[in-house]
Amino acid sequence: MLWQIEEFAVNKTPLTLPLAQPKIVVRKSTRRLMLFSHDELVRIYRVGLGLSPNEDKEQEGDRRTPEGTFYIFTKNDKSNYYLSLGLSYPNEEDAERGLRSGLINAVEYSQIKEAIRKKIAPPQKTALGGEIYIHGNGSQSDWTWGCVALDDQDIRELFNAVRIGTEVVIEH
User: Fold this and answer.
1) How many C-beta atoms surround the C-beta of residue 107 within 10 A?
2) Domain ranges of the chain
3) Which residue in 22, 45, 51, 134 could disulfide with 154, CB within 3.0 to 4.6 Å?
């Protein structure tokens, strides 16, 4: 109940742009995306996740939403899902796991690490999977291939509030 009161209060406050040091935290267990401005919570949105939402993403096609720390590497205003924010999945931890398990090779591992170092898009077509976005088209259920889905009015507000490079933390 306290969460609902807090959510109601946060979402009634007008969003003042630009945000100072914006940060996104997605909490999979509660299906919520929290937007911060300089460590102050300014918005809470409901989200839908991948069809297998409870575990961390391990490989292409597992329909899991990844967990970890990422950044926004692109903003797409021509998305098939209204608007979208590209996440830097796989990150270094995913690459290390993938190399250990044999899902990716040393070259792919190096390419991922280099992309993360440069804060650009990591390779999106490895056996680890890729093309993980925060996008529109609805938050009423878990329906994506591993993305984070918001209602269209919410992704519009979020899209306008953040910039490329914004940190995104996805927690269980």
Assistant:
1) 9
2) 2-171
3) 45
Greatest Cα-to-Cα distance within the chain, rounded to the nearest angstrom: 49
Global confidence as pTM: 0.93
- Give the C-alpha separation, 120 to 110, whole Å: 14
- Residue 129 DSSP symbol: -
Identity of the amino acid at 114 = E
Q: What is the pLDDT of residues 18-29, one digit of tens each?
A: 999 999 999 999
- Rounded Cα distance, 122 and 143, in Å: 24
Helix/strand/coil for 43: strand
Task: Among 2.30.30.60, 3.40.640.10, 3.40.350.10, 2.40.440.10, name the CATH number for the domain at 2-171.
Answer: 2.40.440.10
Band the pLDDT of 8: cuts 50, 70, 90. Answer: low
- Residue 1 pLDDT greater than 50, yes or no: no
- For residue 97, the SS3 value is helix
